[in-house]
Amino acid sequence: MLYADDTTLTSQAACVDEVVCIDQAAQTAAKQYRDECRESFIKLKILTLPALFILECLLYIKASANRRRTHSNNHGYETRNRTELLPKFCRLSKTQRNAEYLAIKFYNKLPSEVKLLPAGRFRSHIKGFLVARAFYSCEEFLACEMVLKDFNL
Predict the structure, then answer these.
(1) Residue of 6, 14, 4, 45 lying closest to 132 (CA atoms)
(2) Could you point out which of 10, 19, 42, 54 has its C-alpha 20 to 30 Å from the C-alpha of 2?
(3) Closest to 110 measured CA to CA, from 142, 76, 135
(4) What is the pLDDT along the chain (153 residues), one digit of tens a residue?
């Protein structure tokens, strides 16, 4: 599980990087069949490896969201992004690719109504969204447009 502490999340992220590299190599080899595979993932309701990583990252952040800093902690202004979590400052791009930094980016990408759901409903709605989309990369998740109806709310 990724909930224990930050060191567990970081150490498992290194293992995930290796598995993702192998998974990406397999996907590259079968690039012509990618669309058919995506449909199979959706039909069989199976999470892709990147979607599983995103789900675990979101659940980790959800469990600790109330202990993290937001924009509203820095100032009292009523800004549009006041509820978004602030990632720790990272000078290097390699550090910005670590699991905790990515997890905060994933969480901030979600609609605010989804962030407010209790943990059980949060997990089921996020999992349903990830199964329906069958993401092949974290970048694909970050680039997609998320509408509230996609989460069946």
Answers:
(1) 45
(2) 42
(3) 142
(4) 444 445 455 555 556 666 666 666 666 655 656 567 888 889 899 999 999 999 999 999 999 877 776 655 666 666 666 667 667 776 766 666 778 888 989 999 999 899 889 999 999 999 999 999 999 999 999 999 988 888 887
Distance CA 61, CA 77 (A): 24
Query: Each residue of 74-89: b (16+ CB within 10 Å) or e?
Result: eeeeeeeeeebbebee
Q: Classify the C-alpha dihedral 41-112-81-60 as positive or negative.
A: negative
- Domain ranges for the chain, please list them: 6-151
- 3-state helix, strand, coil split of the chain in percent (to 5) is 70, 0, 30
CA atoms of 13 and 30, how far apart (whole Å): 25
| Residue 109 to residue 79: CA distance in whole angstroms | 16
Residue 137 CA to its chain's centroid (Å): 10
